[in-house]
Amino acid sequence: MKKQVKKSGRAIPMRLNILFLCVFLLFSAMIIQLGKVQIFDGETYKNEVEKRENATVSLSVPRGKIFDREGNPVVDNTSLRTITYTKMKGVKSEDILKTARQLVDIIEMPQEDIDKLNETDKKDFWMQLNPKLAENLVSKKEIDTFREKDISGKKLDKKIEELKRKRVTDKNLQELTEKDIKVLAIKSKMTSGYQMAPQIIKKDVSEKEFTIISEGLANLPGVDVSVDWERVYVNDGLFRSVLGNVSNSDEGLPSERLDYYLVRDYSRNDRVGKS
Questions:
Q1: What would the pLDDT profile of 145-166 be if each residue is shown by its tens digit?
Q2: pLDDT average, residue stretch 198-224
Q3: Which of 59, 90, 224, 252 could join 47 via S-S bond, C-beta 3.0 to 4.6 A?
């Protein structure tokens, strides 16, 4: 009987040691996981939170109609099905590119928007698609030379980008496919304005395009469908000097009165009357 008690007394410390070891391993695992979340995944979670922040986005509303004394419309508005994109906080260039690639399979961009793309647009896009090749366009020695001239920070980044752009050849640009160019046309529309302001990707879209985009909004972050408007002058050029004009979304606020409108909470791409 004495032997059994003695044996049991030795077993208790052993069990405690195993218990403490398990607790220690669990706490170690928690500390490692916490460090991983804070150090490695912290930026990712921060971006996700920023994307889901509530934000106020301004939308353009139709201007008033003008009637003659008999009640007939002189100036009217016509509605247009429109696809827009709003860049939210924390959205990266890669996210925009991913969305543009999704849209290119759904909407057909007007040829005039594709024709507006210049050589610089295409060179920048080629560099985004080929980051490693673009990186090799400027040597470390050349970067060190810039630093020796006390060029640093954003100024240094700008110099490097300009040098890379100059060294992108016509042969490089020929690597861009027809689909790549269409993706670029969509991406250019998406990034043409300011953050938190809806940018029109395409106006007067077909019913099919409008329906497909509407149904897939959950998988197209920042993309939305809306009904935009355009000014219609019933009598064409008659009395246009009296009736005036309205700027379009591409023109936005007139540069000569930019400060006047901005202090009154207008967005830069708002449409306003002009003489």
A1: 888 888 888 899 999 999 999 9
A2: 93
A3: 90
Decide which of 1.10.10.1230, 1.25.40.620, 3.40.710.10, 3.40.50.2000 is the CATH code for 49-243: 1.10.10.1230
- Smallest CA-to-CA distance from 58 within 262, 274, 273, 275 is with 262
Residue given tokens 């391993």 in the structure block: 25
In this prediction, residue 58 carries a pLDDT of 61
Residue with tokens 């007067």: 204
Check whether 241 has a pLDDT greater than 70.
no
As a whole number of angstroms, the distance between CA 161 and CA 102 comes to 28
d(CA 275, CA 273): 7
In the chain, the amino acid numbered 16 is L
* Percent residues over pLDDT 90 in the chain: 41
